[in-house]
Design brief:
Blueprint (H helix, E strand, L loop, with lengths): L2 E3 L8 E3 L2 E3 L1 H11 L4 H5 L12 E3 L5 H11 L3 H5 L7 E3 H6 L10 H10 L3 H21 L4 H11 L29 H10 L7 E4 L4 H18 L3 H4 L1 E3 L10 H4 L13 E5 L18 H4 L4 E7 L9 E6 L2 E6 L19
Parallel strand pairs: 6-7, 6-8, 8-9
Antiparallel strand pairs: 1-2, 3-4, 4-5, 9-11, 10-11
Length: 346
């Protein structure tokens, strides 16, 4: 309840009631514990930072206030309410910005909002939330995840990628779209996780857009880079699908992923895109090679969601709808991001 006001040219009072919640803050905290938006959470230091993570429901507002918001935001009613009849909402900072003091005279509904905004209610709520956020920041530091700890170390050293951005974004999302629970069958996820730790896998070309898988891949890249003291892509070459990765922010994690302009890059482990057409006939006979099956894209391991049948040059392992082919012929590890094979020995 912000207050009551009398609209101009009216003898009837109206209540200014607004619904505000902190769902965006919950979404941010959930995402950070999955390894996403970590910098954004850890950069909250001031009570005012939390205003970005409040959401305003418009369902309690009267018509005059809604019209005021519509005009100030320069949008149509459909953009405020959405396609359905149910009122939507907006970020608090956008809503609050609609109520700037007028040079001459403030409309009554604007004046009641401005008077309420200087009361103790708002600072008290922000201080309560800030105390909660500081606890969550400390709890995040207690996690044992290697990649998360690496990103926190970059933040502490002021070496994080976003430390060099003038105004890092604060996102008012109502939900957290990422999860450490893979969207893949568990046995397929486990096979990928084990393969990337092998010494004969120095590069991975992965067409999957699975957040949990990419956390595993980038974690291994950072681990090898730190262990061997070489640049990220030289330590463990990673390339993704040409369509990009929706929620994967490898640079923020301290890693690096190449996104090809078109097609797919090569890798010791080649996880083929669905559109990729292999040629199994190139694997047959004494001159057959797994790399020829993938037109030179794959090396020792080919993971494909189509059954190419038995190949002379590779073993075949069925993993649900996927097939893993392992070359029977020894293949020197190759990394497309180095000029030659890198001897990574301790």
């Amino acid at each position: 309840m912000v207050g009551s006001y009398y609209p101009w040219r009216s003898n009837s009072s109206r209540d200014f009631v607004v619904g505000i919640d902190a769902r965006p803050l919950v979404a941010l905290i959930d995402a950070a514990f999955c390894g996403a938006r970590v910098y954004e959470l850890m950069s909250i230091r001031r009570p005012g930072d939390l205003l970005h993570y409040w959401w305003v429901s418009l369902s309690f507002l009267d018509d005059e206030v809604i019209e005021h918001v519509r005009v100030r935001r320069r949008v149509k009613l459909r953009e405020i309410f959405g396609a359905s009849d149910s009122p939507a909402g907006m970020p608090f900072v956008d809503f609050d910005d609609c109520f700037q003091p007028d040079v001459d005279d403030n409309p009554p509904h604007v004046q009641v909002w401005l008077e309420h905004r200087v009361r103790a209610f708002w600072p008290e709520r922000l201080e309560e939330l800030l105390a909660l956020v500081l606890k969550m920041q400390n709890k995040l530091r207690e996690t044992s995840d290697f990649l998360l700890q690496h990103e926190l170390s970059l933040i502490d050293a002021l070496k994080h990628r976003l430390d060099f951005v003038a105004n890092p974004k604060r996102v008012t999302d109502l939900g957290n779209p990422v999860s450490l629970q893979t969207s893949l069958p568990n046995d397929l996820f486990q096979v990928i996780s084990e393969l990337v730790k092998q010494d004969d896998v120095r590069s991975v070309s992965c067409a999957l857009d699975d957040f949990a898988v990419w956390r595993v891949l980038v974690s291994e890249q950072v681990r090898r880079s730190v262990t061997f003291g070489v640049p990220l892509q030289e330590a463990f070459g990673l390339s993704g699908p040409d369509s990009g990765l929706k929620y994967v922010t490898a640079q923020e994690w301290g890693g690096e992923v190449h996104i090809p302009v078109e097609g797919a890059c090569e890798g010791d482990l080649f996880i083929a895109p669905k559109w990729f057409r292999c040629r199994p006939e190139a694997a047959m006979g004494p001159d057959g090679r797994l790399s020829r099956v993938t037109w030179g894209k794959g090396g020792s391991y080919l993971l494909v969601n189509q059954d190419l049948g038995e190949l002379d040059c590779a073993t075949r392992q069925v993993i649900g709808d996927w097939i893993l082919y392992r070359s029977k012929i020894p293949v020197d590890p190759r990394n497309p991001f180095t000029l030659h094979s890198t001897d990574q020995t301790s």
